[in-house]
Design brief:
Elements: E1 5-14, E2 17-20, H1 21-28, H2 32-39, E3 43-46, H3 53-68, E4 73-79, H4 90-98, E5 105-109, H5 115-129, E6 134-143, E7 156-166, E8 171-173, E9 178-181, E10 187-188, E11 197-198, H6 200-220, E12 229-234, H7 240-252, H8 259-266, H9 271-276, H10 283-294, E13 302-309, E14 313-321, H11 331-339, E15 342-343, H12 346-354, E16 363-365, E17 374-380, E18 383-388
Parallel strand pairs: 2-15, 4-5, 4-6, 12-13
Antiparallel strand pairs: 1-7, 1-8, 2-3, 6-7, 8-14, 9-14, 10-11, 13-14, 16-17, 17-18
Helix pairs in contact: 3-4, 6-7
The chain binds coenzyme A (COA).
Length: 389
């Protein structure tokens, strides 16, 4: 009998501050309805000066280590598209901050917002090879577009940590996967840029094309029929995108695109992304957390997941919710991660957005702002310095 493998635990962290879309709309004169209804966003997380993908990733993973220990973790895969170094994996800093064992492989993965799903799939393969081992998958991103650009309203920041192992407590990941890759320039960030470049409308078209392609392959690989899924968990660069994607899928399959039915299929997946904003690699797993935290008992039910990363790669796959999963959820901590954020006004957000370390190799310290468990103390001799608080 083949061993069941999947997500054993899931935890997330987000930034110290939050900018409301009302504050952004007041600054740029946009009708608030465009943000609240048109793109489906209420607010976005803004990292403190001493937070980054490492501090958020370590903060997300720490509760997992506290609950399950470290001894079975022999691999850490860190997925991000807002990388802080061209050579060193951000996961090595996380490994150090969490005090993981030295007998461990650590690597960073990149393919825009899709990277965490690649990490999850690679983790499944490692656990299949040796079911006594666990893999820590960390998806952490700071989404940053130019000030006063259309992308500005779809920023955000968060990290999701997942423990992948045999006999998972939350979600058994199933075969097959539907895959899709196409070479498109809808979103990219050249090495010399801090902020991403995006062709917004092209990215929506490319996302929909990828949904169609991944689903087509999923059916060709003998996946489940659409009717079997209790809910659909989509990557959400802005929550309205999930609605566009599901309507497109239903149309493609010749199903009714009744708004109520679409709401029932994915309405419970958007609560965290609507207030955190785009967290790139973490987004689809924040949607999963929101669903598990809010839905009536899903034990034994199949969930569909659609992961999309611009450029572009997509994967449609499924999981079955494990009996007893509710006792393992971190609902209270998840809600606290959101409510603990301090509101920042537009000027404060702008100052944080414009912050950058000088590249002179000197000693540059960051102000102590975060109330999270880890902080980026500064940069010295081109080396990032992290510390536990
Ligand atoms: N009330 C309600 N809805 C409103 C509105 C109002 N006052 N004003 C506009 N809208 C709606 C528009 O009709 C549109 O809805 P639709 O797409 O369902 O037609 C939506 O709000 C967005 O308006 P649009 O003019 O397209 O916004 P934009 O040019 O500012 O671009 C994004 C929006 C999402 C493309 C832009 O923020 C962006 O480029 N983001 C980054 C890329 C991204 O997230 N891509 C997603 C795929 S990975």
């Amino acid at each position: 009998m083949s061993v069941s493998i999947g997500i054993h635990d899931l935890s997330f962290a987000t930034g110290e501050f939050v900018l409301s879309h009302a504050a952004l709309a007041e600054h740029n004169g946009t009708d608030l309805g465009k943000y609240h209804v048109g793109i489906g966003q209420q607010s976005m997380s803004v990292p403190a000066a001493d937070e980054d993908i490492v501090t958020m990733g370590a903060a997300a993973a720490a509760p997992i280590i506290a609950r399950h220990g470290k001894s079975q973790i022999r691999t850490v895969v860190f997925a991000t598209e807002s990388s802080i170094d061209q050579a060193k994996a951000a996961g090595v800093y996380v490994h150090s901050l969490l005090g993981l064992q030295s007998a461990c492989r650590v690597v960073e993965l990149k393919q825009a917002c899709y990277g965490a799903t690649a990490a999850l799939q690679f983790a499944l393969g490692l656990v299949r090879r040796d079911p006594t081992q666990q893999v820590l998958v960390v998806a952490s991103d700071v989404s940053k577009y130019e000030l006063d650009s259309p992308g500005e309203a779809t920023q955000g920041a968060a990290a999701v940590a997942m423990l992948v192992g045999a006999d998972p407590a939350l979600l058994r990941i199933e075969e097959p996967s539907g895959l899709f890759t196409a070479d498109v320039m809808d979103f990219w960030r050249p090495n010399y840029r801090e902020a991403a470049l995006v062709d917004g409308q092209e990215s929506i078209t490319a996302y929909l094309q990828a949904v169609e392609g991944a689903w087509k392959d999923y059916t060709e690989q003998n996946g489940r029929p659409l009717e079997e899924f209790a809910a659909f968990v989509y990557h959400q660069p802005f929550t309205k995108m999930a609605y566009k994607a599901h309507r497109h899928l239903l149309n493609f399959c010749g199903h009714d695109t009744d708004a109520d039915a679409i709401g029932r299929a994915l309405g419970q997946t958007t609560a965290y992304n609507a207030v955190i904003g785009n967290s790139y690699t973490a987004s689809v797993y924040l949607a999963l957390a929101a669903l598990l935290d809010q839905a009536d008992d899903l034990a034994g039910r199949a969930l569909a997941l659609l992961s999309y990363g611009s450029g572009s790669v997509a994967e449609f796959f499924s999981g079955t919710v494990v009996a007893g999963y509710r006792e393992q959820l971190r609902t209270e901590a998840n809600r606290a991660a959101i409510t603990r954020r301090t509101p920042v006004d537009y000027a404060g957000y702008r100052a944080l957005h414009e912050r950058a370390f000088p590249s002179d190799g000197g000693d540059h310290y960051t102000p102590a702002q975060t109330t999270g468990p880890f902080r980026l103390a500064g940069i010295s001799g081109h080396k990032r310095v992290y510390e536990a608080r």
